[in-house]
């Protein structure tokens, strides 16, 4: 993810057109302008607003980035721990006034200390595949206090009608992997990061995994494009 961090730093330094290039492993290329990461609360989607309203207690914001959600929660009086693996993102978080920042991997956390674990911007994708979802939920048990919840959004890729995406889903099936797994490599100004996988998981599959691990999976909000917000609780 280093190219993403460099793009964030470039934007913070004044380049309002800073972008990262996504290279999918089937050759598809897409630009992402990182100004979206710096959006203000008035620009939040209904899904984001619903997620923030559903938070309670001490919040762990996983994949916080430059902190649009952490900063808003902090402003509203929440105790927030912003977690991101990018050193550039964490430096910007500090400059933006976020009080509690941890530049680390999610799995480095061990203390049972949170009422809400929040993952926005499809940050659950970091788990990479369905096995990673199981690992994630099991680790959340170590971090959540009694009656704690997980709030996250993901994309139900089944709703797409775009032929290149449908072909990619079929390619995944032929490769023996879940259709919502995406192989990516990031580029910033000609500098490439290491290839990695990103997971988009449909709510039916997520519900089954959660139920098998004795979690309750509830959809709080759905968007026409396939985005959805879910609450996961015991």
Structural write-up:
The chain is of the alpha/beta class. It has one domain: Rossmann fold. The protein has 7 helices and 12 strands. Strands 5-4-3-6-7-12-11 form a 7-stranded mixed β-sheet, with helices on both faces. Strands 1, 2, 8, 9 and 10 form a 5-stranded antiparallel β-sheet that branches. Strand 8 (181-188) and strand 9 form a beta hairpin. It is globular, with a radius of gyration of 17 Å. The model has no long low-confidence stretch (mean pLDDT 97).
Strand content: 25-35%
Radius of gyration, Cα only, in angstroms?
17 Å
Top CATH class: Alpha Beta
Mean pLDDT: 97
Which stretches of 5+ consecutive residues score pLDDT under 50? Answer: none
Q: Kindly state the number of beta strands.
A: 12
Largest sheet: 7 strands, mixed
Any idea what the CATH architecture is? 3-Layer(aba) Sandwich
User: CATH H level: which superfamily?
Assistant: Vaccinia Virus protein VP39
How many separate domains?
1
Helix/strand/pairing class, anyone? alpha/beta
Question: For the terminal residues, how far apart are their CA atoms?
Answer: 32 Å
Q: What's the SSE pattern? A: HEEHEHEHEEHEHEEEHEE
What's the short version?
With 234 residues, this protein is an alpha/beta fold. It has seven helices and twelve strands.
